[in-house]
Amino acid sequence: MNAAALMQGLSPRLDDLMRYHRASQNLLSTLHQTVAQVLPANKPGWLSHACTAARCATDSSTMQRIERWMQHRLDGLPTSVLWSWQPSPSKQVQISKTAILKTAAPGEKGVVFISFESQWQKLLALGPERLAAFAEDYDLVLAPTWSPPHSPVNLVFPRLFPGPLPCTISNLADMGILPRLHTSYRPVQLFASSWVNPALYQPRPHEDRDIDLVMVANFGHYKRHHVLFAALARMPQGQRPKVTLIGQPHGQRTVEVLQREMDAYGVRDCITLRSRISDVEVVDTLCRSKTALIASLREGSCVAVVEAMIANTPVALLEGAHIGSSAFLNEHTGRWLNERRLHTELPTFITESGGYSPRSWLLDHGVHCHASTEILNSALKAVALEAGRPWTRNLFEHHWRPDPILLNTKDRQASALERQDIEQRWGLSLA
User: Fold this and answer.
1) What is the pTM of this model?
2) pLDDT at 9
3) By C-alpha distance, which of 82, 103, 94 is closest to 157?
4) Which residues pair with 334 in a beta bridge?
5) Residue-level pLDDT at 431
6) What's the whole-number mean pLDDT along residues 101-107?
C-alpha cells in the first residue's frame, strides 16, 4: 500500500476515533459544555454547543445533567428572545417531507406529518400569529431523524408551537429522552422505518439471488464503508463475496472518494458501486441480495434495515450499534456481528442466509405502513380525546418511499385540495 493509499484508508479511521472512542466523546462533551456556559444566554450559539455536549455524553446521568441545564437556561428566556433566533416571518413558506394525514373539518383538527427537523423549523417563519392560527386547525406529527435527538430545533420548537407534539422516534431510547426535552412531546413507538410498504417488494427465492451482500448507505463517514472494505481485504481473494454498494455523495465524499478507498484496501474487484439510482432499482437490488449489512455505529432509525428485511433479505448490524431499527433484529431477521471478526463472521452469515425469514416476521409483528397507521391513529385519537376534542375520522394511510406518500387515490385528491386551502390561508406550501 503506497502513502496515498495509506492516507486514504486512514482518514475514516481517524473519523471513527473522534466519533466513537469513549475518551474522545467525553472530552468533546466537556469542551462543548464549557463553551456553552461562557456564551450569553440570549444568543443562540450556546444551545448548539450544549446539544452537542449532550449527544457526546457517554452516560445517561451526564446527558440528563446537561438537559436540565439547557432547560433551566431556556426557561429563563422570554419567548420573544426565542422568536428572535428564527428567520424573519415570510409571506410564503415552503416545507417538504410532508403529508396531510387528515383533513380539517368544522370542530375537528386536521393532521400534518412533517419529517426532518430542518423542515418543521421552517414553520416558524409563519411568525407567532399565523402559527397560532394554523395550530388552531391542525395537529402536527413530527418525525425526528437522529438519535440522540438533542438539537436546537427540538428544544426551541415546542416552546414556540402552541399545542402537543406527537412524534415518532429514531431509537427506543428516545421514548424517554424526548419528553425530557419538552413536555409537549408525545412520542409514539414508531420509527421512520415503520412505514415500509410490503406491496412494493417482490422477493426472489433464495436460490435465485445473485448478489451476496448489499449495503444501502450514503457515502458519509458515519456509514463506515471502510469497515466492510477492511473485512473484505482480510478474506482470500478468490473467496470474497459479490458485494453491491448503493448510495449517493455526502458532502465531499463522492463516488471517486469511495473508489479510492476500495483501491486502498485492494477490494474493488468484488464490489459493484451504484450511485443515485432509482428507487425501483434499489428495491430490485434488495430483492436480489442474500444479505445486507449496515456498518454504522450511530444514526437514526436507518430505514434501509427494514427495507432489506421486507425484501426478505436478512440484515447484519455491528455489535454495540445505536441504530433504531435494531429493535427488529432477532434470530428470524438477521444477526449482530463482531466488527473485529467481520472477515470470518460475514461469510458465515451469507452461507446461512437462506435460514432466515425476515419478511414473514415483519408482517406477523405489524412492522409495515398499514399497521403503523393504526398505531399512530390510536395515539392521536387519545391525545385529542384527552384534550376534550372530537375524533370522528381516522388518518389516511401513507408509506415512506422515500418521502411520505398517501396510499389511497381519494385521500391524495382530498389532500391536494387541503394543501391549496392551507397555502391560500397562511401562505404555507406543503410540498
Assistant:
1) 0.93
2) 54
3) 82
4) 315
5) 85
6) 96
